[in-house]
Design brief:
The chain contains 5 helices and 5 strands, in the order βαβαβαβααβ. The protein is of the alpha/beta class.
Length: 144
């Protein structure tokens, strides 16, 4: 069985563990890693047109920086290891976008790392893992 494994990746230790887990699965099944980095984004609809234009310019710069700083090294490592890899950098809600991307590309699984946020912190601020497990259109693995 081959397929695409969506990995939520932000360069953290926990996302690195998730990538290693997904890489092992992709390698065993002849699959592809789809490395996804999501920058949180809020539309701020009350901004003026000039402010929105400036914000979109900064957004494009942030996406380019994320691609270079976070993805480039990992992509090279995966390619050197013979693992097919694709990348995506997007703006938006992390859980929603990972689910949407997985559905759009017919992924077989989403893999993310758990950051160790306290139970109270997760209840107050929300949890990407919690939201993803509840809404994911495909099986989801949270790697400790």
């Amino acid at each position: 069985m081959s397929g695409k494994f969506v990995v939520g990746y932000d360069g953290s230790v926990s996302s690195r563990r998730a990538l290693e887990f997904a890489t092992d699965r992709a390698r065993a099944q002849g699959g592809t890693i789809v490395l996804v980095h999501v920058l949180e984004w809020s539309p701020y609809s009350f901004l003026t047109p000039g402010e929105l234009e400036e914000r979109h310019k900064r957004r494009r710069e942030e996406m380019a920086r994320a691609e270079e700083a976070i993805m480039t090294t990992v992509v090279a490592e995966l390619k050197d290891a013979g693992v097919p890899v694709e990348t995506m950098v997007r703006y938006g809600n992390i859980a929603e976008l990972l689910g949407k991307i997985a559905k759009d590309i017919n992924a077989v699984q989403i893999v993310i790392g758990r950051d160790g946020q306290s139970a109270i912190g997760a209840r107050v601020f929300g949890s990407v893992a919690g939201a993803l497990v509840q809404t994911s259109p495909v099986p989801c693995t949270i790697v400790p």
